[in-house]
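Schema walk-through. Below, the input block comes first and the output block second. Nothing else is stored per chain. Lengths vary across the set, and this one has 345 residues.
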Amino acid sequence: MPARIPATIVTGFLGAGKTTLIRHLLDNAGGRRIALIINEFGDLGVDGDILRGCGDETCGEEDIVELSNGCICCTVAEDFVPTMLSLIGRDTPPDHIVIETSGLALPQPLVRAFGWPEISTRVTVDGVVAVVDGPAVAAGQFAANLAAVDAQRRADDGLDHETPLSELFADQMASADMVVVNKTDLMGEAAAEALVSRLKGQVREGVHVVRASHGALPVEVLLGMGAAAEDDMEARHELHHHDGDDDHHHDHDDFESFVIERGEIADPEAFAAQVADTIRAHGILRLKGFVAVEGKPMRLTLQTVGPRVDTCYDQPFGATPRRTRLVVIGEAGLDREAITRALTA
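--- output ---
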């Protein structure tokens, strides 16, 4: 029987740097043929387009599959398993499969899907990589120190008692074979070391917690763990396990996303500042997309986490209309009209 194809699941909250990490992985694939499955949350598949712009011969258009019909772990039978069968059934199958979950997807149901009879003898979970936004977690977001806030919420009948963000973060830590503390270039040395030490105390024995800047890690660190995670579910202490698929539930109603379109902009720096101001004013979790700049043949890729705005010119527009398209992701209740006015002014 041929060896099972290894698959790496990359999980992490919105804006942690999953796409950046995968892009770096593709740029340094060393001849490996890598297939990608991307579970984008929202109406605009920005992450898929960013990765398609990699131009790497080991990752062609046919090797990137985007699942946008809901959370990947909610659509296992309808989308995920058929996609896997299509990839591994090719005349030249991939050497490795990388799956980027949406920032809201629970990792354990996806790992369990590798036990489905159709694929269980042909693929295996090489490892689950949880990407963490170092500065955000150090500041107390989506980490264990939200317990005090959670307790305060539960003590007050007038408040929402649900804590989907902290529970999701705990699920990601519980499922991980490696935790990548990303953006440590934005932290002091002492703060980064303290966060790494704290996270090491939250994960299973043998799980590595590593530091990274801009998602830059050696391919050999990310691939080849040999965890066979689908055979080790009991050790992963899932918080949200349900016995039946009909009972499977996510707190997706706590989030919303929408797309904003506008024409070309004249000043990229001024627009980046405009985006940052809008994020601060409206509590947006993530804003990303492509910007058309007057006089520039290349599209400007824009990604944000909190008020931080990162931009780079990635590829020509080509036949794509020269329009600015942005996807806004945040907790439910965003003032869409005000945000649209602010970003189209």
